[in-house]
Amino acid sequence: MNETTNGRYILDIQELSMQFGGLRAVNNFSIHLEPHDLQGLIGPNGAGKTTVFNMITGVYTPSAGQICFLNENITGFESFEINQMGIARTFQNIRLFPNLNVLDNVRIAYHTHAGYSLNDAILHNRHYKNQEKELTERAQDFLAVFNLQDRQAEIAKNLPYGEQRRLEIARALAAEPKLLLLDEPAAGMNPAESSSLMDLIHFIREKFDMTILLIEHQMRVVMGICEKITVMDFGEVIARGTPSEIQSNPRVVEAYLGPGAAALSEKFRRRKVE
Amino acid sequence: MLKKISRQNLIFFGGLLLFFVIVQLAISLHLLNDFWNTILRIGAVMAIVSLGLNLIYGFNGQFSLGQWGFYAIGAYTAADITYRWSNEQSSLGLTIVLFGVLLVGVAILYIRRVLSRIRGLDALSAFTIYFVASLILGIVAVYLGKLAEPVFNTVLRLLPGVVALQIVYIIAVLVAAVLAAEISFLFGLPVLTLGSDYFGIATLGFTIIVKVLLDNSDTMLGFQEMKGARGMVGIPKLTSWFWVFLFLVIVIVVMRNMLHSSYGRAIVSVREDEIAGMAMGIDVAEFKILSFVIGSLFAGLAGGLYAHINGFLHPNTFNFIKSFDPMIIIVLGGLGSMTGTLAAAFAWALLLEGVLRLVLPQGFETWRFVVYPLLLLLIMLLKSNGLFGDYELPFLRQIIPPLKKKLDPGLQTPTSTPASPSSAQKAIE
Predict the structure, then answer these.
(1) Do B400 and A175 touch (CB under 8 A)?
(2) Minimal-distance CA residue of chain B relative to A175
(3) Which helix H or strand E contains A239, and what residues bound it?
(4) Residue B389 with chain A: CB contacts under 8 Å
(5) Residue B109: how many CB atoms within 10 A of its CB?
């Protein structure tokens, strides 16, 4: 799976730190993503995972360290610029445009590719009409890919939870990003829903040749789809490796279950082997 | 589909034309007396201000009480220009403001292009640059205006008096609108970075500042003809039903066309969720400014029209209490509903300025301001999303294009069968 193109990372984060007053939310965080990677970022609540996402997408400006995307330093860029460069994200608590219909939710993501000026829009000239028609058709095709085409006129907030998630992912992908950040996509989903989400993530990765970094709490999902996992605790990276390496890492168990738990789980495993 | 849309346009514009002709006939045949004529024109003016405010608050989500201040700026600017022309035979006001708005407008557009290349420039520094540039160009415009005045005077005097007056009037209304827009740009640049509530308070402050300046316009600003708190008289009454209706239609069409485009969707996305909008590549700050400037442009335009209805302006008209009028109109009509705003603006003028003035006995006009909040309270309790809610006239409604075709199933996601045991599920088991 590691198809390295000239050894280039699509996302290269080095020693990123974020200080909120006296609280060091993230400390010396580094991660590298190669094209077509699917990596996971896990950790107990408050470990700083979402803060990392917020720094990558420009919601926060890091106190130290740098973020390189496609060999360009994007540290301190504005959110919308980062999106326009090709990083899209979803949110932990779904952030759709709640009172707009499904089609408009996706069409807003196309704004950067609209291809007509405000003057064209006000005059409603031919150029506007052609561009707008093309844009709408693209959005509709896109909804069809995500099985939401029959919902296009529905108001986003009236959709069932699972479809809202799907719409949020669809909207993030509509802007044609090169890197997709998913913040707890399986939150609040039942097992059946989360396995269909796993299929969806696989599908996206293959169809759009996407690089994906995801935060997830459901171990089943993370262990099931990620090739490489980074574990954070109290703002620091405590482990990195394949799912099986992570599962047997005593520091990870300790971070999740408290001190002493590692020894206990080791004992438990040995007994199981015997 | 194209045919259907053009039929809709036909019905809309046909209906507008019919409405215009009927009212115009009623006015020309003296079926409608001056009182009701004025009420109708004030209704149209209120509709323009309220549409502008609806763009800012209803569509963009920025709670602004500054609309009335920009309305006042538009009114006094246009009034001063036509006053000077009709009473002093001087086009000095016209030339200065015309050169001013042109120079500042070009400068703003140019500086904006230059500044967009600089990363991480904070709003206050940007404001300082724009402000200094505008100030310098404003002074330049005064000199240029004085130089150009004789030329303008001679050219305008070549035309028949009535035509020249109409030309001066239209240019005055337009430059007043652009001036209001430019001031709103300068003001909005630093202030729009504030959160929504603080923005509301800052804009309220703006309205109060404008009112105080108008109270002292003869002493502090040196405009003798504005006569400060005594009120400006002698403005030519040029705003006919034709002009006010024409401008209203232009405002409706411009706003509708803008909202039905990607730019309109971006404006609405700011109201819906700023953070999500940013994450979708929407430059939130830019769209806040855009809708604020266009909303204020409409306010300035309405002000210019209003000044020439009664031929009399008084700072009390622009009191901050009155700045709640357009706010109440858009809440009544429904935030984010153009149809509702139009209906509520005319209803506001007809009922509160018209019917209640006639029905209530002499000296009880102030009771309107008891009826007014009560009406609002009732609407809020009974129909909290405004009289019209989501309803729009067919012309103003956004049509969702029907699906063109079905994609072949191979392209679709596997999510349609959520319960089936998936490959991924098998992988972990």
Answers:
(1) no
(2) B280
(3) strand A236-241
(4) none
(5) 9
Task: Give yes or no for a contact between B244 and B44, defined as CB atoms under 8 angstroms apart.
Answer: yes
- To the nearest whole Å, the CA of B307 is away from the closest chain A CA by 27
At A172, the amino acid letter reads A
Q: Write down the pLDDT at residue A23.
A: 87
pLDDT digits (tens, 9 = 90+) for B208-266: 999 999 999 888 888 888 888 888 998 999 999 999 999 999 999 999 999 999 999 99
Single out the residue of A138, A221, A103 nearest to residue B424, CA to CA: A221
Residue B186 CA to residue B272 CA, distance in Å, equals 25
> How many CA within 13 A on the CB side of residue A2?
9
- Distance from C-alpha of A55 to C-alpha of A146, rounded to nearest angstrom: 29
Domain ranges of chain A: 11-86+177-273, 99-164
| Helix, strand, coil percentages, rounded to 5, for chain A | 45, 25, 30
pTM for this one?
0.89
Question: What is the structure's pLDDT at A53?
Answer: 93
Please tell me the number of Cα atoms within 13 Å of B171 on its side-chain side.
21
Chain A residues with beta carbon closer than 8 angstroms to that of B421: 195
Q: How far is the alpha carbon of B368 from chain A, nearest alpha carbon, in Å?
A: 35
Domain boundaries A11-86+177-273, corresponding CATH code: 3.40.50.300
Tell me which residue in A109, A122, A172 faces B258 most closely, judged by beta carbons. A122
Whole-complex ipTM: 0.87
Helix (H) or strand (E) holding A211: strand A211-215
Contact B181, B74 (CB under 8 A): no
> Which residues in A lie closer than 8 A to residue B402 (C-beta atoms)?
none
> In this predicted structure, which of A2-6, A212-216, B83-87, B345-349 has the lowest mean pLDDT?
A2-6
Bridge partner list, A213: A39, A181
The answer to whether the Cβ–Cβ distance between A145 and B272 falls below 8 Å is: no
Q: Which residues partner with A32 through β-bridges?
A: A12
* Out of B258, B283, B406, closest to residue A121 by CB: B258
pLDDT (tens digit per residue) in A33-90: 999 899 999 988 888 899 999 999 999 999 999 999 998 899 888 899 999 999 999 9
